[in-house]
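Fig. S4 source data, part A: sequence.
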Amino acid sequence: VHGNRIPMVSTVFELQDEIAQVESAEIISSKLMAGTSDGDFMLYGIEATMSNGNRYFILRRYSQFHYLNQQLHTEIGDIYDLFPAKRFWNNLLWDYVKTRRNDLQTYLGELLKEEENRRNKTIIRFFSPIRDPVNLQILVEGSPETETLDKEEEFQEEKQLPPGERFFGWDTLPLCNCFDPLPGKGVGKWVDEEVTNARGEVYSAQQGFRPNNAEIAHLQGVLKRMLEIKAGKITFD
């Protein structure tokens, strides 16, 4: 941990944590996951605060929010109307991503406002850090793909950030339909950013994206592809 960065949010829980309820949840990041076997999608980082004061970090995508809402439709009907509708085209435009993120935050806030909702087993399962939070075909630690990544010294050097350097995040540009694309630049740009929550605490790449080893391996693959895009090894026509 460097500078003013807080320690990694723990995903190891004591017995009392398992029965504690999530009292609040804050979406503190939204990242484009590009080139996965599941296609391109936004992955939302959520900081959950439990009734015993402990906090942890989970990753969820819109389809998981949508599935949660479908399950709750018959249980909590009045919350259903607050959920942002599904969109099939241009759903990765940055302005739309920001709007959807705000709508999902409002939805979570209303969902956790009532004590009865916080005891709901469906909601507890959604916030569980023990379950696979991404539901992807992800690289598993010790697999041939992961071992190959470990042998790539250049990637290892890129992955190990020096003290004080920020994590490179991926930010989509408007006009994803490429009416006026930049030649050789594709539809994306690199931004140098850190994730900061409402209390002003800063998460580094390691803190914000290391809930478990399997997800680390998957995100390593995504980051490797992004580094290749940044270096010009991969372009979009």
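Fig. S4 source data, part B ends here. The chain has one domain: 15-230.
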